[in-house]
Design brief:
There is one protein chain. By secondary structure, this protein is of the alpha+beta class. The chain has a single domain (19-272), classed as q2cbj1_9rhob like domain (Jelly Rolls). Helix content is 26%, strand content 21%. It has helices at residues 19-35, 46-58, 112-118, 120-130, 193-200, 255-262, 264-272; strands at 37-40, 69-70, 95-96, 100-102, 135-136, 144-149, 155-158, 165-171, 175-176, 179-182, 208-210, 217-220, 226-229, 232-233, 238-243, 245-246. The strands form five sheets. A six-stranded antiparallel β-sheet has the order 1-12-8-15-6-4. Strands 7-13-10-11 form a four-stranded antiparallel β-sheet, covered by helices on one side. α1 (19-35) packs across α4 (120-130) and α6 (255-262) crosses α7 (264-272). The longest helix is centred in the first third of the chain and has 17 residues, at 19-35.
Length: 278
Protein backbone atom coordinates (compact mmCIF):
# COMPACT_ATOMS: atom_id res chain seq x y z
CA UNK A 1 0.00 0.00 0.00
CA UNK A 2 1.38 3.39 -0.91
CA UNK A 3 1.51 5.80 0.84
CA UNK A 4 1.82 3.83 4.04
CA UNK A 5 -1.68 3.54 5.44
CA UNK A 6 -1.45 1.83 8.83
CA UNK A 7 0.63 3.55 11.48
CA UNK A 8 2.77 0.51 12.20
CA UNK A 9 5.05 2.59 14.41
CA UNK A 10 2.21 2.72 16.93
CA UNK A 11 0.40 -0.49 16.03
CA UNK A 12 2.62 -3.44 15.03
CA UNK A 13 0.03 -5.22 12.87
CA UNK A 14 2.85 -6.16 10.49
CA UNK A 15 4.70 -8.12 13.18
CA UNK A 16 2.03 -9.85 15.25
CA UNK A 17 4.34 -12.70 16.24
CA UNK A 18 6.63 -10.43 18.30
CA UNK A 19 6.39 -10.48 22.08
CA UNK A 20 5.38 -6.82 22.24
CA UNK A 21 2.63 -7.34 19.68
CA UNK A 22 1.28 -10.39 21.51
CA UNK A 23 1.08 -8.38 24.74
CA UNK A 24 -0.64 -5.51 22.94
CA UNK A 25 -3.18 -7.80 21.27
CA UNK A 26 -3.96 -9.48 24.60
CA UNK A 27 -4.66 -6.04 26.10
CA UNK A 28 -6.98 -5.15 23.23
CA UNK A 29 -8.81 -8.46 23.58
CA UNK A 30 -9.30 -7.83 27.29
CA UNK A 31 -10.63 -4.32 26.66
CA UNK A 32 -13.04 -5.58 24.05
CA UNK A 33 -14.23 -8.34 26.36
CA UNK A 34 -14.68 -6.01 29.33
CA UNK A 35 -16.01 -2.85 27.65
CA UNK A 36 -17.46 -4.19 24.41
CA UNK A 37 -15.37 -1.58 22.63
CA UNK A 38 -11.78 -0.55 22.05
CA UNK A 39 -10.36 2.38 20.09
CA UNK A 40 -7.02 2.87 18.38
CA UNK A 41 -6.30 6.59 17.80
CA UNK A 42 -4.05 7.50 14.85
CA UNK A 43 -4.42 4.01 13.42
CA UNK A 44 -3.79 5.41 9.93
CA UNK A 45 -0.97 7.79 9.12
CA UNK A 46 -1.68 11.50 8.76
CA UNK A 47 -0.77 11.41 5.05
CA UNK A 48 -3.07 8.46 4.38
CA UNK A 49 -5.90 10.01 6.37
CA UNK A 50 -5.73 13.28 4.44
CA UNK A 51 -5.93 11.39 1.15
CA UNK A 52 -8.77 9.19 2.41
CA UNK A 53 -10.78 12.27 3.31
CA UNK A 54 -10.21 13.85 -0.12
CA UNK A 55 -11.22 10.63 -1.84
CA UNK A 56 -14.31 10.24 0.33
CA UNK A 57 -15.48 13.77 -0.44
CA UNK A 58 -14.99 13.13 -4.15
CA UNK A 59 -17.80 10.52 -4.08
CA UNK A 60 -19.99 12.12 -1.40
CA UNK A 61 -22.56 12.99 -4.07
CA UNK A 62 -23.19 9.24 -4.50
CA UNK A 63 -24.35 8.83 -0.89
CA UNK A 64 -27.95 7.73 -0.38
CA UNK A 65 -29.87 8.97 2.69
CA UNK A 66 -31.88 5.84 3.43
CA UNK A 67 -34.60 5.67 6.10
CA UNK A 68 -35.19 8.60 8.47
CA UNK A 69 -36.92 6.72 11.32
CA UNK A 70 -35.73 3.29 12.42
CA UNK A 71 -36.17 0.99 15.40
CA UNK A 72 -33.24 -0.36 17.43
CA UNK A 73 -33.70 -3.66 15.61
CA UNK A 74 -33.63 -2.18 12.12
CA UNK A 75 -31.66 -5.04 10.60
CA UNK A 76 -34.68 -7.26 11.27
CA UNK A 77 -37.53 -5.17 9.91
CA UNK A 78 -40.29 -7.61 10.71
CA UNK A 79 -39.27 -8.25 14.29
CA UNK A 80 -42.23 -7.46 16.49
CA UNK A 81 -44.84 -7.34 13.72
CA UNK A 82 -46.73 -10.21 15.29
CA UNK A 83 -46.08 -9.13 18.86
CA UNK A 84 -48.81 -7.51 20.91
CA UNK A 85 -46.69 -4.71 22.41
CA UNK A 86 -47.36 -0.96 22.70
CA UNK A 87 -45.78 1.63 20.42
CA UNK A 88 -43.43 2.62 23.25
CA UNK A 89 -41.93 -0.88 23.43
CA UNK A 90 -38.32 -1.11 22.07
CA UNK A 91 -39.50 -3.43 19.29
CA UNK A 92 -41.71 -0.68 17.90
CA UNK A 93 -39.93 2.44 19.12
CA UNK A 94 -38.40 4.44 16.28
CA UNK A 95 -35.58 6.95 16.52
CA UNK A 96 -34.38 9.63 14.12
CA UNK A 97 -31.74 8.69 11.57
CA UNK A 98 -30.11 11.43 9.51
CA UNK A 99 -27.14 10.31 7.45
CA UNK A 100 -26.21 9.22 3.94
CA UNK A 101 -24.03 6.30 2.89
CA UNK A 102 -21.94 5.37 -0.12
CA UNK A 103 -22.24 1.65 -0.80
CA UNK A 104 -19.30 -0.67 -1.39
CA UNK A 105 -19.84 -1.03 -5.13
CA UNK A 106 -19.41 2.75 -5.56
CA UNK A 107 -16.09 3.00 -3.70
CA UNK A 108 -13.25 2.62 -6.24
CA UNK A 109 -10.77 -0.19 -5.54
CA UNK A 110 -7.82 2.20 -5.89
CA UNK A 111 -9.04 4.34 -2.96
CA UNK A 112 -6.81 4.01 0.09
CA UNK A 113 -9.83 2.99 2.14
CA UNK A 114 -10.46 0.08 -0.23
CA UNK A 115 -6.80 -0.90 0.00
CA UNK A 116 -6.95 -0.85 3.78
CA UNK A 117 -10.13 -2.91 3.82
CA UNK A 118 -8.65 -5.54 1.50
CA UNK A 119 -5.29 -5.70 3.26
CA UNK A 120 -4.43 -9.09 4.73
CA UNK A 121 -2.84 -7.17 7.61
CA UNK A 122 -6.34 -6.25 8.75
CA UNK A 123 -7.56 -9.84 8.56
CA UNK A 124 -4.56 -11.10 10.53
CA UNK A 125 -4.89 -8.33 13.12
CA UNK A 126 -8.60 -8.91 13.72
CA UNK A 127 -8.10 -12.68 13.80
CA UNK A 128 -5.46 -12.23 16.50
CA UNK A 129 -7.93 -10.22 18.60
CA UNK A 130 -10.92 -12.51 18.13
CA UNK A 131 -8.96 -15.74 18.26
CA UNK A 132 -10.82 -16.90 15.16
CA UNK A 133 -10.29 -16.64 11.40
CA UNK A 134 -11.72 -13.39 10.05
CA UNK A 135 -13.21 -12.88 6.60
CA UNK A 136 -14.33 -9.92 4.53
CA UNK A 137 -18.05 -9.44 4.15
CA UNK A 138 -19.08 -10.63 0.67
CA UNK A 139 -22.13 -8.39 0.34
CA UNK A 140 -21.79 -6.28 -2.84
CA UNK A 141 -23.15 -3.15 -1.12
CA UNK A 142 -22.73 -3.59 2.63
CA UNK A 143 -19.14 -4.80 2.84
CA UNK A 144 -17.56 -1.33 2.88
CA UNK A 145 -19.44 1.93 3.42
CA UNK A 146 -18.68 5.60 3.89
CA UNK A 147 -21.25 7.53 5.92
CA UNK A 148 -21.72 11.30 5.89
CA UNK A 149 -23.47 13.34 8.57
CA UNK A 150 -24.12 17.03 7.99
CA UNK A 151 -25.17 19.50 10.67
CA UNK A 152 -28.09 17.92 12.52
CA UNK A 153 -27.04 14.45 11.36
CA UNK A 154 -27.40 11.57 13.79
CA UNK A 155 -28.02 7.85 14.07
CA UNK A 156 -30.69 6.37 16.33
CA UNK A 157 -30.10 3.90 19.14
CA UNK A 158 -29.68 0.50 17.51
CA UNK A 159 -28.04 -2.91 17.50
CA UNK A 160 -25.98 -4.23 14.60
CA UNK A 161 -26.57 -7.47 12.77
CA UNK A 162 -22.92 -8.54 13.00
CA UNK A 163 -21.11 -9.44 16.22
CA UNK A 164 -17.98 -7.49 15.29
CA UNK A 165 -18.09 -3.92 13.96
CA UNK A 166 -15.00 -2.15 12.64
CA UNK A 167 -15.11 1.56 11.86
CA UNK A 168 -12.60 4.26 10.94
CA UNK A 169 -13.46 7.90 11.62
CA UNK A 170 -12.20 9.92 8.68
CA UNK A 171 -13.38 13.38 9.71
CA UNK A 172 -14.73 14.58 13.04
CA UNK A 173 -17.33 17.36 13.25
CA UNK A 174 -16.83 20.67 15.00
CA UNK A 175 -18.99 19.42 17.87
CA UNK A 176 -21.48 16.68 18.63
CA UNK A 177 -21.44 13.46 16.64
CA UNK A 178 -20.46 11.55 19.78
CA UNK A 179 -20.56 7.77 19.79
CA UNK A 180 -22.60 6.56 22.75
CA UNK A 181 -23.16 2.95 23.75
CA UNK A 182 -24.54 0.68 26.45
CA UNK A 183 -22.20 -2.34 26.47
CA UNK A 184 -23.50 -5.90 26.59
CA UNK A 185 -27.05 -4.79 27.32
CA UNK A 186 -28.48 -7.92 25.76
CA UNK A 187 -27.36 -11.49 25.13
CA UNK A 188 -28.36 -14.49 23.08
CA UNK A 189 -30.40 -15.68 26.04
CA UNK A 190 -32.03 -12.38 27.05
CA UNK A 191 -33.11 -9.38 24.96
CA UNK A 192 -33.36 -7.38 28.22
CA UNK A 193 -36.09 -5.10 26.88
CA UNK A 194 -36.47 -3.21 30.18
CA UNK A 195 -32.83 -2.12 30.13
CA UNK A 196 -33.09 -1.21 26.44
CA UNK A 197 -36.17 0.89 27.12
CA UNK A 198 -34.37 2.70 29.95
CA UNK A 199 -31.67 3.75 27.47
CA UNK A 200 -34.27 4.89 24.95
CA UNK A 201 -35.94 6.93 27.71
CA UNK A 202 -32.61 8.59 28.68
CA UNK A 203 -32.97 6.93 32.06
CA UNK A 204 -29.99 4.56 32.20
CA UNK A 205 -26.62 4.65 33.94
CA UNK A 206 -25.15 2.11 31.52
CA UNK A 207 -24.43 4.58 28.71
CA UNK A 208 -20.80 5.39 27.91
CA UNK A 209 -19.28 7.84 25.44
CA UNK A 210 -16.41 7.63 22.96
CA UNK A 211 -15.18 11.04 21.81
CA UNK A 212 -13.48 9.83 18.66
CA UNK A 213 -10.82 11.70 16.71
CA UNK A 214 -10.21 11.43 12.98
CA UNK A 215 -7.93 8.51 12.18
CA UNK A 216 -9.30 6.34 15.02
CA UNK A 217 -10.09 2.70 14.32
CA UNK A 218 -12.87 1.36 16.54
CA UNK A 219 -13.67 -2.27 17.27
CA UNK A 220 -17.10 -2.77 18.73
CA UNK A 221 -19.48 -5.56 19.70
CA UNK A 222 -22.50 -3.83 18.24
CA UNK A 223 -24.77 -6.88 18.13
CA UNK A 224 -25.02 -6.94 21.92
CA UNK A 225 -24.40 -3.27 22.76
CA UNK A 226 -27.03 -0.63 22.06
CA UNK A 227 -25.41 2.42 20.45
CA UNK A 228 -26.00 5.67 18.60
CA UNK A 229 -24.30 8.81 17.25
CA UNK A 230 -25.53 12.06 18.77
CA UNK A 231 -26.50 15.05 16.64
CA UNK A 232 -23.70 16.71 14.69
CA UNK A 233 -23.13 20.39 15.42
CA UNK A 234 -21.41 22.84 13.10
CA UNK A 235 -20.76 22.92 9.38
CA UNK A 236 -18.01 20.29 9.20
CA UNK A 237 -19.31 16.86 8.26
CA UNK A 238 -18.78 13.77 10.30
CA UNK A 239 -17.34 11.19 7.88
CA UNK A 240 -16.90 7.58 8.87
CA UNK A 241 -16.00 4.34 7.12
CA UNK A 242 -17.60 1.03 8.11
CA UNK A 243 -15.41 -1.97 7.27
CA UNK A 244 -17.35 -5.21 7.07
CA UNK A 245 -15.52 -8.16 8.58
CA UNK A 246 -16.92 -11.34 10.08
CA UNK A 247 -15.85 -14.57 11.70
CA UNK A 248 -18.31 -16.27 9.33
CA UNK A 249 -17.02 -16.95 5.81
CA UNK A 250 -19.10 -15.92 2.81
CA UNK A 251 -21.33 -13.55 4.76
CA UNK A 252 -23.90 -11.75 2.61
CA UNK A 253 -26.47 -9.31 3.94
CA UNK A 254 -30.11 -8.83 3.18
CA UNK A 255 -31.36 -7.58 -0.20
CA UNK A 256 -34.26 -5.73 1.41
CA UNK A 257 -31.82 -3.92 3.69
CA UNK A 258 -29.57 -2.94 0.79
CA UNK A 259 -32.47 -1.52 -1.22
CA UNK A 260 -33.64 0.45 1.83
CA UNK A 261 -30.22 1.87 2.68
CA UNK A 262 -28.68 2.35 -0.76
CA UNK A 263 -31.64 3.21 -2.91
CA UNK A 264 -33.74 2.03 -5.88
CA UNK A 265 -30.65 1.45 -8.01
CA UNK A 266 -29.99 -1.71 -5.99
CA UNK A 267 -33.40 -3.08 -6.96
CA UNK A 268 -32.69 -2.19 -10.60
CA UNK A 269 -29.35 -4.02 -10.49
CA UNK A 270 -30.93 -7.03 -8.83
CA UNK A 271 -33.65 -7.17 -11.48
CA UNK A 272 -31.05 -7.39 -14.26
CA UNK A 273 -28.14 -9.19 -12.60
CA UNK A 274 -29.08 -10.73 -9.25
CA UNK A 275 -26.22 -10.66 -6.78
CA UNK A 276 -28.14 -12.05 -3.80
CA UNK A 277 -28.99 -15.74 -3.51
CA UNK A 278 -32.68 -16.55 -3.78
Amino acid sequence: MSPQIINTGLYPVDNLSSADARTWVAQLRARLEHDGSCTLPNFVTAQALAKMVRQAHSIAHLAYPGPTEVSPYFFNYRLGNACDVPATHPLRRKGRRNLAQVAADLIPPEFLLSQLYRSDLMLDFLAAITGKPVYRNQDPYQSLNISFMNQGGCQQWHFDSGTMVTTLLLQEPEAGGIFEYAPAIRSEANENFDAVQAVLDDNSDRVRQNHLQAGTLSLFRGHYSLHRVTEVEGSRQRVQAILGYSTRPGLIGNKESSILHYGPRVAEIEAKTPLYPE
